[in-house]
Design a protein that fits this description.
- With 423 residues, the protein is α+β, with helices and mostly antiparallel strands.
- Helix content is 55%, strand content 20%.
- The strands form three sheets. Strands 2-3-8-5-7-6 form a six-stranded mixed barrel. The chain has a two-stranded antiparallel sheet with strand order 11-14. A two-stranded antiparallel sheet has the order 12-13.
- A hairpin with a 5-residue loop joins strand 6 and strand 7.
- It is elongated.
Length: 423
Amino acid sequence: MTGRLRLLPRLALRNVRRQARRSLLTAAAMVIGVALLVFSRALGDGAHQEWIDAAVRLGAGHVALQAPGFAASRTLEDRLSPDAVRRARALIEAPDVAAAVAHVAPRLEVQALASAASGAVPVMIVGVDPAVEREFSRLDGRLIAGRYLQAGDRLHAYVGERLMDRLHLELGSRVVLTAQDAAGDIAGQLVRVVGVFRTGLPEADEGLVQIPLVTVQQWLGSDGAVTTLAVLLRSSWDVPRILRRLEASRTPADSALVALGWRRTMPELDAAIRVDDYGDYVFHIVLFAIIVLAIVNTVLMSVLYRTREFGVLRALGLTSRETAALVFTEGMMLTIASGFLGMILGFAVTWVFFRHGLDYSGLLENEFTFSGVVLEPVIIPVFRVVQLVQSMGSILAVGTLASLYPAFRATRIDVAEAMKFEA
């Protein structure tokens, strides 16, 4: 029994080689399918990373530490006190969290009215630390006139191009910002435009104004307070782990703090990525269907054409289970060999031709925006070990399922009838 089982892989390999043309055609289809799977997953992951990075840099980071009610109210009533800010920074500076953190940007956001001689426009005022924000955000890279905020600035503002047009402003123009302060009173602040940016997002170019954090704190009577500590991680893959760690480290003294991941602070982007993932899943299902049909066709045809051979083997003592194992082994040999070759081909093609990114800027006339995010016109593929393991595991699972039916058919061969077939 054991000797016959050891003989099965040799018989399976011989049968695969004997039908070389059919095996090569099947293997070619599978290799191309697996290579496309590897390429599409690397490109999809790369695109999603670009979307997330662009969004979190302009928004509240991968993780936002805020007061529990700020996400809903967006008012100064739900701000982090200086003591809460210190507690939040202590959580972030814990060794197992700090290793994953690239930058931490304090921000104080408030709804306001920007007024000039020509009219008034509702805007979002964001108080920032210019030195930190330059490293954290990409907004300074969208400069089209003037300069970005600098350390030491106080009564300066960095505004969008559309707001400049709406209020008929120029560099150096004065703008009055009016908002509700921490005491609930209406307070005004005069600033001068020092720089103009263009993101391509109408809501940002018309409704976003950055001024120094200390100016906002003094103007609104909230010295030392912020509404958000925006945390930029080195990798978006670390977000779930960091959120779990921050939650585990919280004490009753941290009840005034809540840590939110980018999926909660930017639900539109989260929904857009999920929809795109579903599209990828449909594409992958089509590829898997091609692979299944290729394996079933090759192995099943091999069974049908070798009826007499199986009859002889059964007559010589091979059991129905061993016959099924022989056919199943043939299918798995094709699957494993083609899967590895396909992964190597997919990795090689992606690395050789697209390691510096897939540039689609030639297809665009203007900025490309998606779900409120301005995207760079270059997608850099991302390879992950878990991605490759999942892909190979999926291929093996598909190959296993596709080999079961031909193996079952092989067990239904009648020895007496099979011996009547001409060799």
